[in-house]
Amino acid sequence: MDNAMENCIFCKIARGEIPAEVVWKDEHVLVFKDIHPATPKHFLAIPLEHIPTVNDADANNAAILGRLFVAAAETAKKFGFAESGYRCVVNCNRDAGQELFHLHMHIMAGKKFGWPPG
Ligand code: 5GP
Ligand code: ZN
User: 36 in ligand 1 pocket by Cβ < 6 Å?
Assistant: First the structure.
């Protein structure tokens, strides 16, 4: 295993080495509660594969990245906010405020969001 995967918090969650409140999973994607929720409902969907940022997306992992949206839809139905609405956010690098370099989709709900984001 390379260093990035060894030390990555989300890889550790994917391997079961650190706990997380998992709410949904399939063979490629895991969804769990954000440890510091920024909205009343706040989940993170991660590919099990270590992909650092959106910049690393390529044709080989396109299907797995597409599954993040399937995971969001399933989570929204499961937690009852599919109809009222929710926001899916993927931060990439410094200007977007990415803190953990294992690509993840924020699934955020339970409030009315403004647009555009500040
Ligand atoms: P980013 O800023 O990289 O887009 O978002 C990282 C997110 O991961 C933050 O919302 C933060 O609260 C969450 N987070 C950081 N460490 C952990 C952890 O150990 N467990 C869980 N469940 N969420 C985490
Ligand atoms: Zn990782």
Answer: yes
Q: How far apart are CA 1 and CA 4, in angstroms?
A: 8
Residues 109/85, Cβ–Cβ less than 8 Å? yes
> 52 alpha carbon to ligand 1 midpoint, in Å?
14
Any idea which ligand is nearest the CA of 13? 1
Residue range 15-71, pLDDT digits in tens = 999 999 999 999 999 999 999 999 999 999 999 999 999 999 999 999 999 999 999
User: Can you tell me which residue has the tokens 């929720």?
Assistant: 37
d(CA 57, CA 54): 5
Residue that the structure tokens 């931060």 belong to: 91
- Please tell me the pTM assigned to this model: 0.98
Residue 26, token pair as written in the block: 């399939």
